[in-house]
Target: Aldo/keto reductase
Amino acid sequence: MEFRRLGRSGLKISEVSYGNWLTHGSQVEEDAARACVAAALDEGVTTFDTADVYAGTRAEEVLGRALKGQRREGLEIFTKVYWPTGPGQNDRGLSRKHIFESVHGSLKRLQTDYVDLYQAHRFDHETPLEETLRAFDDLVRQGKVLYVGVSEWRPEEIERALKIADEMGFDRIVSNQPQYNMLWRVIEPEVVPLCEREGIGQIVWSPIAQGVLTGKYLPGQEAPAGSRATDKEGRGADMIAGFMRDEVLRRVQELRPIAEELGLTMAQLAVAWVLQNPNVSSAIVGASRPEQVRDNVKAAGVKLDADVLKRIDDIVDPLVERDTDKIQSPATRP
Model:
């Protein structure tokens, strides 16, 4: 495993991190989830990403049990706050009340005294940004949170947060967690240049486009049984739907010869591709089976030369989404 600094902070994290969205507590049984975590640890992964909302808080519980007994100082545990975790009006958003209640719930479920990174899962248009950032800063000062970050924030929202933090003496955000892969590059025009200037690292999710970039989905054919595209209950099918067009699946199959020439699987090529971006601190991979973890982590340390990157671009460019306006948080709390 290779390691990178998280933005300009002193924290080092594994190039490939393990995330349990759409799997732990919902798509796979706990024994399988724990086997995946064990495989990640065996492969040198030290960074684990979750959120209070995943599987209705159950994902944090599963991860907490899976990591129990590990040396806490050797792990980086990340979680998030924003989406609803209960029926009340204050069981969501980034108010001081919800942030404090949410972090205490997360710490209990994760069975830890602190989280290494606490992230605003979306931007809250109903809460003053000063209130959110002060609450985050208080948690840092209390030692319950070591670093703070955001997820899927627009460039102007990140800029506002940095300005307020500097004016009020708060800890700055050190990370952004966006969707990023060969097909979805909405952070490239504005978010990445801003973050490079300001010392913010990207912890990217969906580097294999919900599994589409593995090449297992074939144009004109039914999705394989048990795959994410068939997961209606856990929302996997909804999330992958935008990539499941035949024109996309045909282009993805054209990437296979490149992967084979490099001695990589399709998944390894996709994860390695996002890691070529120097602003990416880590690529989050999820899994329902340990062998998927072992396959994906082999992308760490892989270098793709300029010719390979151009060949990939030539294949996928007509389908790439780069519109920064696709980065959106709900106008009102969900």
The chain has a mean pLDDT of 92.
